[in-house]
Structures
1.
Amino acid sequence: DQQVKQNSPSLSVQEGRISILNCDYTNSMFDYFLWYKKYPAEGPTFLISISSIKDKNEDGRFTVFLNKSAKHLSLHIVPSQPGDSAVYFCAANRGSTLGRLYFGRGTQLTVWP
Amino acid sequence: NAGVTQTPKFQVLKTGQSMTLQCAQDMNHEYMSWYRQDPGMGLRLIHYSVGAGITDQGEVPNGYNVSRSTTEDFPLRLLSAAPSQTSVYFCASRRTGGIVEQFFGPGTRLTVL
């Protein structure tokens, strides 16, 4: 039973436009959320995170929004660049720093010139 | 710091063979884990450890063994390889206090014939 879901396996966006990647979760005990980016033949790398006490966190071109009532978060990339083309994973952590991370299945973002 | 290192990068096994995937980290992280990544399945947790001498199962533990004798090392053993274990394997580590950002190794691509 998947607790973190990324329902769009792929997204294609033109360079300079906004990319919006979505993630839904089912467990209301999750209190910390992360986004990872993965290039081919490399390990995932941390991108941005948000605590459940916030509804927005921004880091340069990347902004994560959290809607707890809807159990939904989204990653906005503005403006999108070809180097952003990668697989993006959403992950969630439950209630404890000892807890495991639960990952979604990923969304392949392609940014075309 | 080398971060999280994994060896080998590539491996081909025959069905029934055994092998150990090596993982080491030099960040003094208490928490280490193993994931496998398969097309369309995202990152699935195999085993994890919250410290030396402590291990636990993740989502897909069958066919794999782990041990944690030191803080630095967390090897993953395939006891009798099967074609279903063909995958890309990632080791990850993080601290158990504070933020839960997890650092990933570069991965091991395993093919079982």
2.
Amino acid sequence: AQSVAQPEDQVNVAEGNPLTVKCTYSVSGNPYLFWYVQYPNRGLQFLLKYITGDNLVKGSYGFEAEFNKSQTSFHLKKPSALVSDSALYFCAVRSMNRDDKIIFGKGTRLHILP
Amino acid sequence: GAVVSQHPSWVICKSGTSVKIECRSLDFQATTMFWYRQFPKQSLMLMATSNEGSKATYEQGVEKDKFLINHASLTLSTLTVTSAHPEDSSFYICSAGEEGLVESTDTQYFGPGTRLTVL
């Protein structure tokens, strides 16, 4: 069975500081991993994904995520946070089995403090 | 990039009426679309998978007679909430995947969501 965990309900970071939003997963075999962002009363926007290759994936708005197979993690990072990064972030995972559906974490609310 | 639209963006209706929500893929074709429901401060709950030209696949616990899904074309899926009640009030989001691409990994592209309020 697939699962994904976002251990933090909320993360507070001062503007200009680096930020990390944590995600761990469990799948059979190799995973497809995704990060999405949701702004208030909006749908989800795709940020980045890991499929294969380089463990460090760069995405939209200066975000990046590092795939760590041994720790089964895919933490989202940004070197310098902006107030506009404040939003709800979802990690998602899917196995390479096309019969499996994508599974979303419960979300982490990111607050960037001015 | 892939764009998915939803209409309406919000709707208020009386209890007992039916509401139709449309989901369109604007610049790509999607044989499969997904309908999610999101409660306040919670994650997305997959309701059903909408398959073009065939019946939708519903997740356990989702009433198929209450949430009617029609996927009549490769760019349009509709969700009809029949005989809506206040407990159906929620944020409904659809998504579609980039299928048919060589490097398709089913990255999901989401619509902006529809806020349903049943009085």
3.
Amino acid sequence: QSVLTQPPSASGTPGQRVTISCSGSSSNIGSNYGYWYQQLPGTAPKLLIYTNNQRPSGVPDRFSGSKSGTSASLAISGLRSEDEADYYCATWDDSLGGWVFGGGTKVTVL
Amino acid sequence: QVQLLESGPGLVKPSETLSLTCTVSGGSISSYYWSWVRQPPGKGLEWIGYIYYSGTTDYNPSLKSRVTISVDTSKNQFSLKLSSLTAADTAVYFCARHAGDSASYYAFDIWGQGTMVSVSS
């Protein structure tokens, strides 16, 4: 059971907008930055969003992040076939004293 | 650009100690925090612990009694030791760099490719 709760799956057709939620608590998302990672099969996670809503250089602006209270969200607009991957949220948990991840959301492009 | 590469045995016996090394190339290990993260087959990510180039460490409380992370700045490497292995420790082990000057504020921006470790007799 992950500390951060994500839906196990999400899907959409090419061009659609997909949103993934990450629900936490006051000791993690509520008081620390949220991060999002994309993991393609057989590869290492890739940083997609940092400090809640910033994109690293090279990440398309189709990806956007936000945070409200104890939840974070990742939105993918203009969905493309290459966006099929697992997506993980992450943050520091003050109570546990360590980094915690969501269970991951598998995005399928129909 | 900075690259990370994990190395170590792919198969370890139960009750033994796993030793992995992460070699940093294209940049200095100094002035950054470095972590180990693992992923059991078909499952999610789990943070193991971090080390600062000066040697300061912090570990996942659930693994703390079995984990030691060390750094060798002369070799631009840091290492993981995980003791008393069981089948539940079978996973891909990643090393990663923290993005800023605080290991609790800034998550991982650069990752190694990962190395698969199986625990089996």
4.
Amino acid sequence: DAKTTQPNSMESNEEEPVHLPCNHSTISGTDYIHWYRQLPSQGPEYVIHGLTSNVNNRMASLAIAEDRKSSTLILHRATLRDAAVYYCILRHEYGNKLVFGAGTILRVKS
Amino acid sequence: DGGITQSPKYLFRKEGQNVTLSCEQNLNHDAMYWYRQDPGQGLRLIYYSQIVNDFQKGDIAEGYSVSREKKESFPLTVTSAQKNPTAFYLCASSVGTGKIYEQYFGPGTRLTVT
């Protein structure tokens, strides 16, 4: 599986946008980019995923670089409830497993 | 409500004892997974099952065993052969393949072995 690189931690102010980066320079053409997040003492939850085009849903937006070697998860207005570990994961098109790295710890200040 | 149930939330055992963690899902998903998480680290895959009566080892299967006799259930046994069993254990199921793929996670079981 191709690897991803994320910052260990980031901090944001409440009500402000947050941009969480992810580098994946060895991504292949059939790898999907998935984002999950894990709140303290809970199981991870799905946030968003995409292949080539930018994606939006009710939780977040995913911006994918044109060369697909990096992507950014965008939380439009961070709340205290968004404080979590965010994982960026690559999955082959027909892959049936997710490989979790250490993720980025997002802290949100009030 | 559809979801994944893991019980108990906290489990304490003495060293040398086998312990079985429960995982049940009512999402009608074919695939199920077991992960282990140590403090400050990401999840590591122990075992997964794509279909009833079939399962595959993940990255850290040594000292663990599973069964998949029913679609809804995927219990994990932590045997006495597992050298460092104290950890947070997460069960998941998944839907889809290709463009549509998502894993759903249970609330986890925190196992402490002393």
